[in-house]
Amino acid sequence: MNLFWKKVFGGLQSTAKFEEKMNELAKDYQRFISVGSSKEFAEYTELYKIVKSAEFKEKKRTLIQRKYSDTEEYRDITKFEKLSKNKDVKDYYVIADSKELKEYLVFVDGGNRVQLDDPEKVKNSPELKKFKDFESSKEYKLYIRLHNSYILKEYEELKEKVSKPQFIESNKFWSNPKRWETVEEYQQEKRFNILAQNPDIQFYIKQKPERFNVVSKYKMTFHDCFDWNTLNASSWNSGFYKEKPLFGNYSFINERQANNKGNNVSVVNGYLHISTREEKTQAVAWHPQKGFVQCDYDFSSDVLNGKNAISQKGGVFTAKMRFTGNKSVHHAFWLVGEKQTPHINICHVVDGQIEVGIYWNSKFETKYTSTRIKGINPGEFFIYSLEWTEKELIWYINNLEVFRTSDFVPNTELFPMINSFIPENAKGGNADIEVDYIKVFSK
Question: What's the CA angle centered on 303, arms 440 and 401, to 5 degrees?
């Protein structure tokens, strides 16, 4: 794969831009999770259901648009006030409460009404004449006409109705042109609108959850940003992994560098360095026929194993690295277990080019499924990543997928390794691995 044109035309994002984008994504995801679990968002969600419901909308429309003149309260209070001003009704109650009527009714109720039909008796009795005159008056005739009439009955019923506290409260409500602002729903809507303007909630609503798929399905299990100064203060060990660490510091007979027990490892300003130096060195080397032998080397370098840092099956392994110096020196960031295979090269720099792949054992042989990546300079910082799922292995450089395979997917825990080496037929020279950070994530 040649990444030259992808780099030129932006298919491969710059490391700085990719880091900025990923940091922003991680920050946004944490904000998304925080807002989604907040009391304010829970309140907003509940209020959203309420204020967006058909019932709520209909009630608001009714309270705002309904005219007071269309209400039963208006009709009742208007009719009552009209009857209260009616002259006959007003006069009726004056007459009903008068002394003349009360005396007349007592006289009539006493069985004396018949006396008023005798003109002679009326003429000779001032009292009878008084009652006779009252009975003939227009006031009494009004009283008789209205007493037990429909209009009076209606008036009495309305009078009782409009004097009740419930009616008074209801009439006060409907006669208020700002009645909507007096109900609980108004306060709910007001609170909803405040929450809807909350920047965090607006942010949450605008997000598409699938945007966070790349960060939501993994959690960080290991992070080394190299804030230590000596290997003893770190999670790393020099040499290849052995149960007894001293036996891990060896070289190979077919390589030109001595692995230098961590002496070529340093941390400067938060960057891990593994330096390959041109210098005469002696070291123990593994010989396939003779076993461990003492050997003279023209170069020194180092191996770091992260067995004590992180050992994991599946997930994402990522590192920000660059490789400078002599191009005949090989560099590798790789995963391995307690056996030689499987062995996954997350990044292997070969002759100034990047190679990714996996060594695995078939029934009859060890195979290497891999690809070579051209068109970018390993001397620049890039973020190299491996996503290890149940079904396949996927390699990335920055934002770009560069290779995937399902030929063999390990089913055992592996741990990270970092080293530089010089093949026996290579010229060799001074070179350096520089690592900004290593991060590991699990599903």
Answer: 40
